[in-house]
Amino acid sequence: MPKEKRRFFTPSPSKDSVADSKATCEAETLFVEDSESPNQSQEEEVESTNDKSSTNPDNFASFKDVFVSILGSIPEKVVQRLYKKYNSSSKCVELAINDFLENQERSTKDEKTIQQKDVKLFSRPAITPRASESSSVSVPSENADSGFWIKYLGSLHAQAWATRPIARPLSPRERIDIRCLTSSKIRPSSSREKSKSSPSSVVRLFTASANDEKGREVGRLPEDISRILSPLIEDNTIVVKAFVTFSDGRRLSIGDSFHLRIDIYLSEAAFVKDLGHIEQADSFITKRRKFNHEEPQHIGEDSLRSRQQAISRLFKRLRLSPEGSMLFETSVIDVPDENRIENTDISEVTNHFSEDKLDVDQLQQIYHINHLFQVLEQLPTNIAPPEENCKIQLRPYQKTGLSWMLSREMEFKEMETLSNINCEESVSSSQIKSNIPGLKENALHPLWSKFRWPEDKSLERPNETCRFNDTNHEFFYANIFNGELSLKPPLAKTSLKGGILADEMGLGKTISTLSLVHSVPCDVDYANSQHNDTSYAYGTTLVILPMSLLSQWENEFSNTNNNPHHECLVYYGEHAQNLRTLLTRPKANKVPVVLLTTYGTVLNEFMKYSKNFNSYSSTSKQGLYSVRFFRIILDEGHIIRNRLAKTSKAVYALSSDRKWVLTGTPIINRLDDLFSIFKFLELEPWNNFTYWKNFVSIPFEQRHISQALHIVKTILEPIFLRRTKDMKQPDGKKLITLPEKQIITEEIAFSEHERDLYSNFKNKASQLFNESVNKGDVFKSYIQIFTYILRLRQICCHTDLLRGVNEDDLEVNTFAEDISVSEDIADDGIEGKLLKRHLDSDGLNLNEISCKIVDALDLKNLECSICTSYPIPLKQVLFTPCQHAFCFTCILDHVDFQTKLNQSPLCPNCRKPISKYCLLKPDLAHSQYSSNLKLSTWSSKPRIHWYNPSNLSSKLYVLCKHLKRLEELECNENVVVFSSFSSFLDIIFKQLNDHFGDDVEVLKFDGRLKANERSAVLDRFNTSKKNRGFSVLLLSLKAGGIGLNLTTASVAFLMDPWWSPSVEDQAIDRLHRIGQDKSVKVVRFIVSDSIEKKILKIQLRKKQIGEAVGVEEEERKKRKIEELQLLFEE
Amino acid sequence: MAALPKRIIKETERLVSDPVPGITATPSEDNLRYFHVTIEGPSASPYAGGLFKLELYLPDDYPMCAPKVRFLTKIYHPNIDKLGRICLDVLKDNWSPALQIRTILLSIQALLAAPNPDDPLANDVAEDWKKDEQAAIKMAQEWTAKYASTSSQ
Description:
The complex is a heterodimer. Chain A is of the alpha/beta class. Helices cover 38% and strands 15% of the residues of chain A. Chain A folds into 6 domains: 18-120, no CATH class; 140-271, no CATH class; 362-440 and 493-721, Tandem AAA-ATPase domain (Rossmann fold, 3-Layer(aba) Sandwich), CATH 3.40.50.10810; 751-826; 840-951, Herpes Virus-1 (2-Layer Sandwich); 954-1105, P-loop containing nucleotide triphosphate hydrolases (Rossmann fold). Chain A is built from 39 helices and 26 strands. A 7-stranded parallel beta sheet of chain A has the order 12-13-11-14-15-10-16, sandwiched between helices. In chain A, helix 20 (576-584) links the parallel strand 12 (566-571) and strand 13 (591-598). In chain A, helix 14 crosses helix 17 and helix 15 crosses helix 16. The radius of gyration of chain A is 41 Å and the shape is elongated. In chain B, 32% of the residues lie in helices and 15% in strands.
């Protein structure tokens, strides 16, 4: 029960009492009870407005004075009324003032209703329309002329109970009247007080009398039934007739129950006449309640809500279910009360924290849309973009994609022309239109369901009153979500020109989209008419991309474009002032059909110009927001999945009639990702967040999963196209054939030094973790644990990554020794220490050795006796102090091999003892040594210095061996190296440059590069064709994952594993996609007996149970702890 | 990437194109790491005139570890036992990655020319050699004629 409002006068008695209801419901009570006489008071009221003489003038005057002095001027009638009401009680003034303050508005409305009631005193249509009654009674609403019909909907059985002893027993089939009392219909209730059950509406049962009497009250219906019936009876939705079903012939006393059968009829008034307003977002849902208890903006909001609930419950009770497949899982769809401020606050908060992610299966469910292939089959498959604009051939599935996109843009004529060029049988546009089921304009609005009128099984056939033409109306339509009913099918307006192209990554969405642009580059109708609109860029398609893909699109455009007058511009915000002119009045010989820009630019412009959107200042005529585009395309549209982000808002604010979203992964984490796309696409009514939340998010959270997914699928169905690599064409062949992909996991062993460092950290981390688990506060120390995990992963890659560690970190200080050990070795100034540590022979003089080497040896023609390579590329040479030269990998392998066998390593050539730390390397930076072998002189002698083997971690060393082998084999396959740590990539870059010569070109691509630098790197990588040697591109996993096309490479190395298997797959897909003609080899490096192996386990686990986490907090926590345990177990 | 290392390929090519005099080594067709070797007995030794068959196998770690060589022809030699196993320092502890098949086979040929009974493998043969070198040499010659003659193979 809602709490009572705080008042500053004594509270009036609770509403449930009869007295109060009597007092406050004067206008609403339609049928009078026997004993009381509210009717009299009603009549009195009616009289009293005109007749003042019935009251005591003196008392009244004083009353009025007091009243007015407190509350100011008040209409006379109101005062009189209040006086009449409280006259008899002792604290009349107080009560009167209470009443007045509570019912401020009601008093004014009272008058109107009073007048209305004059006419409609007995006109409640809840009453059975008796044939003999006047037409005024039968008319439920203002359309007195439309005739009034009712149609049987179903029957309920209820057990009523008697409220008074009844003299004569009830006979079976006796008519019982159902009447409602609503006392608070006009009372502006605060949102806090309003409860779902509207307790103030009471349904009473009356015996019907043959003559036009009021009838006697006999009983009440149970609460649940009355909750359903009363709102519907009140607003004329239904007409009920009740009959006694069973009577045992006894007379009933108070509390006895008797059984009723209630026949329910839908009345004509229930159905909406005008479907126009259905399309707009329902106002009662969108209006936000203010925090203070203000008058609702729509009086009917609450009643609409209660009606919706009543209808959905009624349908459930009557077991009415929709025709066809739109069956919902839950029985009652309760639209949560927007007016409940507490509820909305809490739900906002929980939405923040509850990550209602989807799991893999649910995702698959959404993506697999049943009717897709049916639709696609209807489309012409031999379509091709016009020759004059586009010069490449499309693959078959790209052609279907193009047809589909054209159909979405309603360009049927174009489709017809383009498909008829190549094939014999002509496909007419009307044929196409009719064949595509999704395009039929009579698709049912997704929220409405079709119901079949049930057979009339009522006890009493209302023949005369039912002037209802049955034959045409076999069905009716109901929207369970907002309680509306309609006789005509409410159609979903598909006014969106555009959609979502969600082909799997690597299938060529860019090409498909460009072919669309080439097919319909501009608004032909507009072009042929008078161009009056100065802000319509009718020939430009705006494409918004992530920065790294700019050059790719530019290249694709120039590859596909055949029209010299069409060009593709890149926009960074420079010509903001001229953009409008440039686009709306293009020069004849150079039309910018494609304008490329980045998300960053859009955001910048939004920040600069958004304040001026509504004004007419000159700045509003600049930039992207100064024009309306013919078409807007978002590439990697999932970037705007957060609807609250500024970038998303910036994108929403752009304007165009045709909008497309390209993304391989439309749903990354949660269903709400889709909402943002719908908002961009302006897909009515789903672009309204409250709507979306009510019908999709909340059901999903409440575990009505199949219902939510069903709705999402229905929404997506017409606008979504997705093909995957492993789909098959109609003739059974695979969609695309790619060369094979081979993934090898290579295990690497730590060196002693690395192993020591790793073990130290590992022990500390395990200790902390076990302590936390025992204490039960894993989440408190979660960050620390995670930092340890990060360090461990870094050690696996390269110990130098620890150098960036903060001094504040506790772990560092305790291992200062270990860190300094690695630093010592790395620091070139401490070679002396090294020598003394590792050799006990007489001190070796660097200069002596250096001179001997340089003078005696022909540095350009060295042969490695271990691998017989000749000549050794100079960057790979290492010298022993006994002046013998070897490849660095050969000599290091040899030393390791000997050490493993517990033998002291000896120089292969002369058997003198050697050490890993006493090797020498030529430093070529200071000498101008040219790789051109013809040059036989040095400008200055190369320096030889000590070599530090710790520069190469075990992992990096293995990578070098692989690269050396590739160099040896001379297969000219470009290589891509992925890592999650960009600082590791920096180290790799340096070391590879140190060890590999000009034949192997190393390029680095990461987030720090600017746009032009990025495209320069990519171009160089993709276009450099060497006779010998190859290029190596270093990429970070995240940067590389975005849409890059690296099909010139066929070898990939994953330096470290990532938590999510799909991120790795995406990285590999950069190489293994359309355009790759060699088989792809992938090597993943995993350090044995380390955390990387555990990460692999987690990956496997994720693949099996899905990547999503459950909705509840507890489940998520449990999973996280399980994962941590996996990481730390032995 | 487990293809044959470049070194083995190079060595094989050189062995075939530029053989050491008196020594042949051909790789088996089934397994390129397995070689059929023949060594002519050195002229100034009891094994002169004989053609000895050996097998040579390159393990996976080659060249970090030594190749495995074994005599297939019966031979009377203090450093070669009746199974054909060879006791040669470079094949064991003195191996260096700088050595090659070629050099190994040359060392074996040199071992035939200069037996070393003080570091024996086949004990009884070494004793006989020390006791009575002439008789041992004669025995070696007989064996050569019996088992390693070009006509008997």
